[in-house]
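Subject: Sanity check before I submit

Could someone independently write out the structure tokens for this chain? I want to compare against mine line by line before I put it in a report. The sequence has 201 residues.
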Amino acid sequence: MTHDKEARAWFFHRFYDFQPDLNTSNPYVQAEILKIMGFWIQLGVSGFRMDAVPFVIATKGPKVKTPVEQYDMLRSLREFLQWRQGNAIILAEANVLPETDMEYFGKDGDRMHMMFNFHVNQNLFYAMASADSRPLARALAATKPRPAAPNGGFSCAITTNSISAVSPKPNVTSFSKASVPTRTCSFTIGASGDASLRCSG
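---
Independent answer below. Compare away.
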């Protein structure tokens, strides 16, 4: 929480103090988000990347001690998009564990179209650094079952080498000997389980 001298008011922020949070629990804020989406859809965009999804959909306010994810908000965004641009997608950035990710897709595949696969991403770096492919194989198996919906699946954009969620915790010394590539790769797993890897750089 930060006090703005010019506005003479306090505001919440999850990240930097120059990035005040929107109170997405407020229905008027949700309606404004849909208006902004509608504006860009009319200009012809074919999809949206939704950053920090768990924080965007969490309940907010001075009396909220334990935030709760409002998953129905994701369905509302999806419905709004599908009615206006049937072939557009929402790509979610949500660093969550495999047992939670179906909440973001929806059991019927009616929420997010795609998600960045942080679980595979982190275990891929772990596998390369440790010369052990088993963590990657386990991560791929854990995130394979997807909703039977068009465009449903994971995209793994390898732009970070964080291993914060890798389990079991790796031996840190193994990473000092590893040469992590600087190329940017996109690893995609489709709804049918088919996988593809594209790299550039």
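---
OP: Matches mine. For the report I'm noting this point. Helices lie at 27-42, 53-56, 72-84, 98-105, 118-130, 134-142, 173-176.
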